Amino acid sequence: MALSLGQKAGWGLADMGVVVFVVVKQLLVFAYLTSVLGVPVEIAGMATTGVLVFDMITDPLVGYLSDKTHTRWGRRAPWMIAGAVVMCVGMVGLFSVPAGLIGVAALPWVLGFFMIATLGFTMVAIPYGAMAGEITQDGRERSAMTAWRMGFASVGILVGGALIPGIAAGSGYSVAALTVTPLIIGAIWMSVFATRRAPKIETPSSVSPVRMMSLVFSNRAFVMLAVLYGVMTLAIALITAGLPFAAIYLVVDTGDTPLSGAAKALSVLSLMFASFTVGSILSQAGWVFASARLGKLGALVLGLCLYIVLLFGLYSVLPSVNVTAVAGMFVLAGMTNGSYQQIPWAMYPDLMDVTRRDTGEAIEGAFSAIWLFGQKAANAFAPLILGTILGAYGWVETTAGVAEQPAAALGALHWAVTLVPAGILALAIVGLIALYRPLERRALHVA
């Protein structure tokens, strides 16, 4: 049965709420620890990575339990409804540090609530990803669903990257987190409601956890794609983790460019994210078209190549006093990032179908868990890598938001958020062509 437009768009809507939290944890937590609470950059990186490693460990468990769940509302909906609330409670809590707790003394509070928030995120993200494989087996429908998902995700990026920092600067981080809580919960709950009549596999899986994981890992094409998606994510996560610092130290608005007024009103960071979001939204239909003409793999490789070119361009213009030029480049960055956002999420459900076809087992939750495992691993280690690089070059932590930084530290920040991600994306391209493509052709029986 074909999905209705409302069901495809409704499925995508949940990602608007999910991505708000993803942006918060990737963009703001590390910077909050080092620039507001005064935690040394190396310790902040290690602590953030520790929580996100915990997040990775919970993925297979939630995937297994969601495959086993049997309720009148289906296998996935109860997890998403409860997880949205848990995620928001943790997010508000981690930014609500009691007065007087600064430096390393604040870590137990922040990390405790961060763990709660990431557990809620897993409760939403794993079942949500599993739905992509069970509500349709049509590849074109999946591309359309993913385009809707990424369109709504772009709005989430705008909220998480532009609105929250602006509110946080004026009213505090906890107020900002509380302000977007209704948006997060509302988007996820409305998505569950919109897809309530979409086709679902209601019968819970009967296989053991060991057998479930064995079936997933026997799908070699899927495993390779998940690994390479993790590699791509590491590049993006390094950019995201470093962006708050780059907006402060590498883009200095002189007040005499067309967008200077917007930069002053929104902050440079918020303007960059707004520009990025515009590019991402504009690109979604284009990447659906490219996938249809070039194939999903060909379109993804094209997008990553363009992303590398864009990163070299950013390296050449930073540091910059022309906020308008940098904003224009971030529009282009959003357009190239659209390929990374959209296409892999349309590719991996096709590979889940292979296992269902060959074994008869519907274990989409297990596949979703392993898919997100690579992404979360990358997001976990990016703050550690960036913190280690900046710490090695003498980065200075502060509780005032801005501090005088050594020239060597600023130079390290410059190449760490441009050239290093470009190199990582190049490795991903090689892997897609040399390693993934032969496996995909065998799995999907492509001539």
Key phrases:
transmembrane, Growth Hormone, Chain: A, MFS_2, transmembrane helix, mainly alpha, 447 residues
Note down, in words, how this protein is organized.
- This is MFS transporter.
- Belongs to the sodium:galactoside symporter (TC 2.A.2) family.
- Keywords: Membrane, Transmembrane, Transmembrane helix.
- Pfam families: MFS_2.
- The protein is built from 15 helices and no strands.
- The protein has a single domain, classed as Growth Hormone, Chain: A (Up-down Bundle).
- Helices cover 80% and strands 0% of the residues.
- With 447 residues, the chain is mainly alpha-helical.
- It is globular, with a radius of gyration of 21 Å.
Span from first to last CA? 28 Å
Task: Report the total helices.
Answer: 15
Q: H/E series, N to C?
A: HHHHHHHHHHHHHHH
| Domain count | 1
Radius of gyration: 21 Å
Strand coverage percent? under 5%
Find the structural class using helix and strand composition. mainly alpha
CATH fold call: Growth Hormone, Chain: A
User: Major beta sheet, specifics?
Assistant: none
Task: Estimate the mean pLDDT confidence.
Answer: 84
Provide the CATH top-level class: Mainly Alpha
